[in-house]
């Protein structure tokens, strides 16, 4: 083969390749329609798959939500206990101070009527 023949073949291949690239988006001939049962079955499988994926995501999201709610409830319980303890301590201290002010308790928090 001569160099000219190889060059002509390369040019011809490049032209053919460009034609194929132009045809890439053009649909080809269609055959007869297939059975509708197969299409319905495929659609049902697609719906079941989609439902299972959505359910899995919903379950994961609910699990994260439930964990956050549990965490918040625990924080709320701890805060409530902390506040109740502080309120109880404040009331007890105030009560002791009032009893001292009325001389019902001495400086050691003992009832003043114990003294003789």
Give structural notes.
The chain has 116 residues and is an all-alpha fold. It is built from two helices and no strands. The longest helix is centred in the middle third of the chain and has 66 residues, at 36-101. The model has no long low-confidence stretch (mean pLDDT 86).
Brief overview:
75% of the residues lie in helices and 0% in strands.
Structural class of the secondary structure composition? mainly alpha
Q: Point out poorly predicted stretches.
A: none
Helix residue percentage? over 70%
Radius of gyration: 43 Å
Major pleated sheet: none
Mean pLDDT: 86
Count the DSSP helices: 2
Succession of helices and strands: HH
Envelope shape = rod-shaped
What portion of residues belong to β-strands?
under 5%
Number of strand elements: 0
Gap between N and C termini: 136 Å
Write the layout of secondary structure elements.
Blueprint: H1 3-23, H2 36-101
Keywords:
about 120 residues, mainly alpha, 2 helices, about 75% helix, rod-shaped
């Amino acid at each position: 083969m001569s160099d000219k023949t190889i060059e002509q073949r390369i040019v011809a291949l490049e032209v053919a390749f460009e034609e194929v690239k132009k045809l890439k988006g053009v649909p080809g001939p269609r055959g007869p329609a297939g059975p509708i049962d197969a299409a319905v079955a495929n659609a049902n499988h697609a719906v079941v798959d989609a439902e299972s994926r959505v359910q899995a995501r919903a379950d994961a999201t609910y699990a994260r939500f439930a964990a956050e709610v549990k965490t918040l409830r625990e924080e709320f319980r701890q805060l409530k206990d902390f506040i109740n303890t502080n309120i109880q301590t404040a009331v007890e201290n105030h009560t002791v101070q009032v009893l001292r002010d009325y001389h019902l308790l001495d400086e050691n928090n003992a009832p003043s009527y114990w003294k003789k």
